[in-house]
Fold each of these.
Amino acid sequence: MSRKNKDNYIKRIVNWFDERFGFTKTILRPQPRYSLHPLYWLGALAFTTFILQGFIGMILLQHYRPSVDEAYESVVLIRDAIPFGRLLSTLHLYGAYAMIILVFLHFVRGYFLKQYMKPRELMWIIGVLMGITTLALSFTGYLLPWTVISKSAVDVSIGLLMNLPEPVNVWIKTLISGLGSDQELLSRFFAFHIVILPAILVALFTIKMHIFEVHGVSEPLKKRFMKDVLDYSTEAEEKVNWFPEILTYYLMLISSYIAALLLISVLIPADLPPKFTPEEAAKYKPQPEWYFLWMYQLLKIEIFEGPIGVRIALGLFTLLTLVVIFLPFIDRSDKVDIWDRPIQVTIGIIAVVELIILTIWAVFTPGMTISIINALIILGLPAIITAAIMYMLYRRAKRIKTGEITLLYEKFIKASPIYRIIESFTFSLLIAISSASVANLINLYALHKLELLTFINIFILFLLSISTLIKYFLVNYSRFISLIGNGELREN
Amino acid sequence: MKIEYTVLILLIIQIIIASWIFTLDPVIQQDRSTILISLNFVITSILLYIYKYREKIYPKNILELDEEWIVAGLAVIIFILLIILFI
């Protein structure tokens, strides 16, 4: 068969299906070129991980036994005797972690770029619900190996929920652990993990994809902003076809991503802690998984101790969740650009900084009660510093906009290549130093070896290193401003 | 070197790696097998990149390369490191 005839033959088959399914008019329709960027694919990567997790889960399901007496032994068997068993169990764990990180990044990006604006409010709400379901999936899966760490962590979580007012606590207990026996708890978590939660996630995904199909890919920030400044909407948008551009780009991303996951699974293999027994549990300080550590650390603050304190804390968490879910209806301003929303952006950055600090802090202080003074210093100081940095940044940005300061980007782009390489290298090095100084600070604090002089020294080092980060932001920002100033929209 | 030759060499390497995986014990040597599978995914990614930009004229100055090139470059570095460190 000649090549031309073969192409026609394939085209006819594709057309035959397309006429019936209408793929090229719906999910496989051409998309704007700007969507071929990794940041636009965070959600897709997260859902692909979910599919991958489903396949790995199906293989593990053939060997796993959801019984208190046999669960741990079946996991040992999977790891030691099944072909690629250790890899699959590690990959299932790291896949869950990767999914949480991707969902978080997707969420943070949506927040900072204000993608919850009309008409995408419901898409945001469904996305947040999907994020909560993802956390629940990881939480339920964590118990299944029936190790001393996973069982203790789940017991702590259930214990906290029991502080909720009646009859809510009774309902929750009945839902997740039935009459309260260990076997019932494991069976229910197993059912949630393999059937109920995946089904909910798929249902939410279907609705989200429908909304996505209706509204399409959200426009990049620069473009949305440009619409107000220039008559940008009249310009024809360059579109790329689903095949080969979008498909090859997606497969390229996925291949690199899976390669990285596989590599991490080999280089940092997950250990299996001992089986849960009450005697063994007494030796461990129960800690939840890393993605719940921030919440756990907050609950360890003195003020939230005791039944009433826990109730207040749980009430605050519920309030926070509701604020995040209904954010599109709370933040009604029509300002889109990051530089026009100083308060929202600062709140977002402080939240992310606090989340990271709480998580790292919890790792170093297992089981310790936190005094209110300590909590205020550890949480308050970074919040004040972040707010101050953001204030300076916005002030400087305003001065750049009004032309008071020379554009750093212009300087950077006109400099020699060697200067640019040195600049970039210095930037990376200083970021590494700042991260190391923060880690050192927390470590010294945890070991109770933190003296005032050491603190000041490390803190100055941190501020010096972070100053380059600010400069980097300014470089990028001034590039943006210079584009507006020149009336150019070219991509560099 | 023409891009077609590069693709051909990478495909041959992929086939060799895939054959190698089949000769390894999936329980005792699963770590090595996993690294080889990972390597094959990296090569797939590079092949897809080459296919995606098959008609592109690449700049000669390394500083003019775009971000995808950096990703591809990193993939190649990982590729080489994997070979040196683990096999």
Note: Residues 452-486 of chain A form the longest helix (35 residues).
Amino acid sequence: MSDEAGHVTVTGTSGQSYTLHFGTNAMCRLEAISGRAYHEVYRELQSGTPRMETARQLVQAVLIAPAEPTADAAGDALDDLGGIDVLLLSLQPKTLPPGAAA
Amino acid sequence: MANRERGELRLVAPDRSYLLRLVVETCCELEDRTSRELSAIVAGANAGRATDLRWLLWAGLQDAHAAAFPAPEDAGRLADRLGGLAALRSVVVALIQLNEDDSPPEASGQAAAEPPGSRWRQLYIDARRAGIAPDQFWRLSLRELWRELAAQREVLERDRTLAWMTAALTRTKTLPALDRFIGRRPVQQTPEQMRGMLAILKAQYPKTRHAKGTSCQTKQVM
């Protein structure tokens, strides 16, 4: 896993690489996909019992390579990365946007 | 240098600085692009919605940097260079505060519920009444616009007061002294000044004797 200028590259169990970017535009995409403010989504993810749809929405918003994934492709990527728990553990705390903490 | 009184805010990024200014024309374009009222976008930004924060940063950049930021995503990338959403939020909140209409609601004449677009129409009419040219209106920052309209309200209030006072004076039997009417207090002389004036009068007017039963008259020497 590498971290450069807010970009995080993660390799899935299949060997596929995924580049995630937790930037401002990604948070705007997250709000557009979820219909909620990004900090509300993060609060749910940090609650420990997030809905799977919310986890998939986060991956769909922050995944920049492969670019512009569908919801299903984001779900597949999430599975390949080991599920939401593994993803969140590997991302916290440095990739969480400031103000996202509950 | 940014002129805050013109609604300008200097934004310092790691590589260069930008001049933010929220002008009327961009605000209308923002509402058109988002299909939302500016007030709703501002409320969203104040609540910390990333999308609304990014839209307002984009809007603030349009007056001086439109070519470099054609899309809100470009403003989003600038926000990342500033440090992310926390930095974006502090910049946008400062821009909002700088452009707030601080006149009381009854003075600004804002109705509680207005159909979309009607506020801009009314603001345009009010601005034209205040003597602002059409081109000038679209280029004003919101801060400047609120001030122009506040000045116009004061002129209107002055004119109404003048009309009322004129009508009131025509109904009085005696015209009050100007000093009293305008509230100017007469200048009080000091005892020294009074003595000085008496000395001047004494030198100018000779002593006169008055016959019994005649009025007191003086003869001017000069």
Note: DSSP finds five helices and four strands in chain A.
Amino acid sequence: MSMEMNSAGYGGGIEILLVEDNPGDVRLVKEAIAENKIKNDIYVVSDGEEALLFLRREGDYKDAPQPDLILLDLNLPKKSGRDVLEEVKSDPDLKRIPVVVLTTSDAERDILRSYDLHANCYVTKPVDMNQFVRVVNYIEDFWFSIVKLPPKD
Amino acid sequence: MNIDEQLVDESIWQTDGKWHTLVESAYNIIVIVDRKGVIQYINKKTKENIINTSIYDYMFPEYHEQVQESVGKVFETGRPEDFEIASASSRGQVKWYISRVGAIKLGDKVVSAVMIFTDITKRKEAEEILQIKNDAIESSINGIVFTDLKGNINYINHSLESMWDYCSDDEIIGRNIIELWEGRKRCLQVLNEMKDKGSWIGELVAKKKNSDLFDVQLSSSIIKNKNGKPMLMMFSFIDITENKQSERRLKQIMKELVRSNEELEQYAYIASHDLKEPLRTVISYLQLLEKRYKTKLDSAADEYIMYAVEGAKHMEQLIKDLLGYSQVGVNTREPQIVNSGIVLGRVLINLQDIINEADVIVTHDKMPEVYADDIQLGQVFQNLINNAIKFRKQTDPEIHISVKERDSEWIFAVKDNGIGIKNEYKDKIFDIFKRLHIKDEYAGTGVGLSVCKRIIEYYGGQIWLESEFGYGTTFYFTIPKK
């Protein structure tokens, strides 16, 4: 799978924003991404407010790139993942960025609520580490090899 | 009969045609008797000839003395007497009469007595009905008030007196109905509505003699005469203090229930996320440790890791099951008509691998349509069948699902020929997290049967079991028809 195949057509690496407050999970996602053949740049923020600052290139994030994909946990300090999702999807500059909700919860109301807020997909973190790694790799493969992403500004 | 009497007969009653016609066409019964009561004349035709029979033969014995006395007085004084009697008609019905006895004189001598009977049976009956109605109103457990059209009280019954704590009706008659209630504005509104619509039904606050307040339900109406003219107003009160109190209590309980349900839901949510997350981290990192350091650790370390992972995974299953248990009845869908045969079929497909692996023969009756939630009914079947498979014996395990219809419910039975359950555990087995075996023998968290019980009871049914230790177990559960 080569870079040329992905529709983003962006010269640099593919950029993922991971919004995750659990350092254990951050590490696991990073490990998983490191194992995959696709090479991606991953940026990590640990709460909802930071995520929005990053996406809007405000505060410390003036030079932040616009990510190709957002991996979003739901239960976050300060602004929750739901708030982030809602703001991203109602912001004309951000709403095209695919958001993958990646969370521990398998509660029906979280799933419904996320799709109502236009999440692009909802994934429950598997308990088993090997499955966790596999799921992260599937997400990468799906969004960066199969799906046609919108061109970046 | 003497000459004088014969004279009377002939001269007045038989010879004078005019009088005769008048008397015979009279509405009343007119009888002439002698002093002893022997009938000499009657103005009506009778089936049998009653002339010369005694008048007393035609009235109930209890009146004889009174009538004899009156007749005696008439003969003595010549002045008329009145009395009231009852007699039986030729058809055996009781007839009431008032009667006036007058003297028939020849000169100064009273020679006969004329009795004029007026039938008052209808009036008597009407009076009796009226009396019954009166008694009914007086003894009604409803407090009843009659007022004029301005609301001035002219009658109250006994119940009203005691409901409002008055000692006698004198204290209240003549006062205005408004004084019985709390809130003048509301009372005037009720009276106005009553005048507009002719009646009013609703709840009011009443005020006792000592100004204590209590809740009443009032049904009131305007009573009109035959011509439709309003005559008076009737108010009928029921004391609903107790109903009101229990209604308030119920509302309070409902409120608490809703709150505790919301809390439960919140706990369940916390369990599904906040408890699971650290657990997942534990498991993942133990596994990562295993993966990355496999060659650098010895076999004992591998074993420790295995136990730690297993323990954490079991904990995760417990959380999941507890969550499932707590969610029964929360956000449940409305029950519908479901074909339990289709539900069971789906469950058997789900369990296909386990059934094949355990080599169990599963059979079932023709299943009915029931009123339930298909997913939850499926859960009950699945847990019970799973249970039966888990606790099978090694030789020829069989499971049969049967159903019986009763008037108000269906009784389902899941019967196995497995290891059975000792009598002392029959009830305990439904307790949450109750396990009868160590984990190595039979896997599971001990939530399955508790979930079954919770689901079945949620739909108003019951679940129980019969078992012979060593020979098999039958689980029964009922589903009420709608």
Note: Helices of chain A lie at 23-35, 48-56, 81-89, 108-116, 129-146.
